[in-house]
Structures are given as structure tokens and as C-alpha cells.
Amino acid sequence: MGAAGSSGPLAMSPGPVPGTSPLRRPGAQYTVLLYRVAVVAVALWALLATTTVVWILARGGLGAISQLVDSPARLFSSASLEVWALGAVGAFLVFFAAFLLCQAVGRGLLRLLDPRPLAWPAGLAAPESPVRLLTFASERPDAFTFALLRPRLGFSWTRDEVIMVSDALLGALDPEEWTAVVAHELGHVHEKDGRYLTFLRTFAHLMRWDPILAAVAVGFTRREEFRADADAVELTRRPRALARAIYKASRLATPSHPGPLAGLLGPGGRRGQRQTFERIRRLVALAESGQFEEEAVA
Asked: Can you give the pLDDT at residue 226?
């Protein structure tokens, strides 16, 4: 998901602030590679799952399940080539629908929420590529990132990276906590979560009948929230500030259900509450570990 170029004046990230260093971690390339491998694996699994469903429906529905269980090789026989072709078309259509939905939701957020530009936090280094920092009116304390494809001249495409923060969250945080939240979202931008993770979550929702895809999306969401916390700590050196921000957001938030777009508190629901507690626990443990001098004297 992301930001449309025609949405009016938007705040762009400045260059690196003197005395700070942009977020550059060797793990970022590993994360992108892992995402790409996951997308390929999910595509192959979706092909298999969709083809299996088509095979069962073409052979009488529920009664064909016992036939396939007794002899799984039937699915891979030459007589099933037409079924595999239909399964491939179905999997592609779901993939394409997930991509379009991600783009539509991002553009819809920019139109419906009418976001306003935010000043970049002082002292926080910006990533190497520009990022749009916006706030929007909402009673829900939240922050999230997304990316949009935007056409350019010459039949090429560029990506708009966007960080959006609700005014309810802004009003609840002090400057140190606010900086930590932006640093957390920068971690998502740097690891390209707005591109890959949002797509995987959306795809899993479109194929909600498949528990394997749901487990993959949940696992990646959990991993990336903890990883973005670590990136924020690396940038700000203040784990306790991020822990306070997450705690305040959780106290103000209303119960929610998992959706394609995970915000500051993760996927929502009971799973999200447990994950929030664990994130706070880890951040407090980091603050008390003695690794951060400013935190130790706070």
C-alpha cells in the first residue's frame, strides 16, 4: 500500500541529521530475501491448494476427498493437467486481487482520512529514500506504514513509502515516545514490510480457508513487529520510550480484529494483546540490561 502522488502537500523525510546514522543493518537484505522466498513458496502452495479444490469440485465435491486421500497421486497424473491449468489461473487471480486490494486500500486511506503533513522528529535520521510522514484524525491510537506503486514517464514505476500516525496517538505521547514510534515505523519501511508483509497478510485473508497461509502471515507479522522494535532501539537508544508508547497505545485502544494492515499494536485481537505484552517486556529488559547509558540513568 502507499501514498498517491496527487494527494496534496505531504511531509517528506529530510536528509540524515548530523551526528546520527541512517538505519543500515545487514539483516535488511536477509529480510527482503526471506520475503521473496516466502512469496514464491506461498505462490506454489496456493497453486497446489487451488488445484486441489478444483480437482475435488470437478469430481463430485466432498465425495472426491476420500478418493484423493486414498490416492494423492491422482492429482499429479497427466489426466489432471487441465485441472492444474485452472488452478494456476485461480491462484494468479487471487494473487492479482491481493495486489490490487493493497493498492486500493492505500489510496483509499489517503482519500478518506485526509492526512496532514507532520514535521520530522528532531534528531532522528531519515532513511536514504524519501518517506512521507502524515497524521490523520482518529480516536484510535495507531501508526502504520504502507507503500504504493506510482507510474512515471517512460513506462517505469516508483514506490511511495508512507508513515501515518493518528492524532490520538500523537496527543498521548511525549516527544521522546513519539520519536521512538516513528523509528519503529522506519524499521518497517527499511525492511520493506509495507510491500511484502501487507501483501502476504492480504493474500492470506483472501484465502482464509487455508490455515497454512494464515499461519505464515501470523508468523511474519510477529517477527517483523519484534524486528521493528529492535530497529527503533538501534536508532534512538531508548527502549523504555518505545515501551511507554506501546503501553499508552494499548491502554487507549479498543478491541480489534486482525486485518490486512497491522498497526503499532500488531494484528489486533487476543493474539495482538499477548504480542504487545511480550514486546513491552522485551523492551523493558533491554532498558534494564545496562546497554543504554541514557536509559540507565533515567
From this structure: 94
What would the 3-class secondary structure string for 65-102 be? HHHHHHCHHHHHCHHHHHHHHHHHHHHHHHHHHHHHHH
**40 half-sphere exposure, CB direction, 13 A CA radius:** 5
CA–CA dist 291, 294 (Å, integer)? 9
Residue 100 in domain: yes
Q: Closest Cα partner for 279 from 231, 235, 236?
A: 231
Cα(79)–Cα(89) distance, integer angstroms: 18
pLDDT at residue 255, rounded to an integer? 61
Contacts of 246 (CB under 8 A, 6+ apart): 264, 265, 276, 279, 280, 283
Task: Give the pLDDT of residue 188.
Answer: 92
Tell me, yes or no, whether 255 lies in a domain: yes
Mean of the per-residue pLDDT values for the chain?
Answer: 83
Residues of the chain with pLDDT under 70: 1-29, 153-154, 255-262, 293-298
Question: Cell match 533515567: residue?
Answer: 298
Residue 18 domain-assigned?
no
CA distance 159 to 168: 28
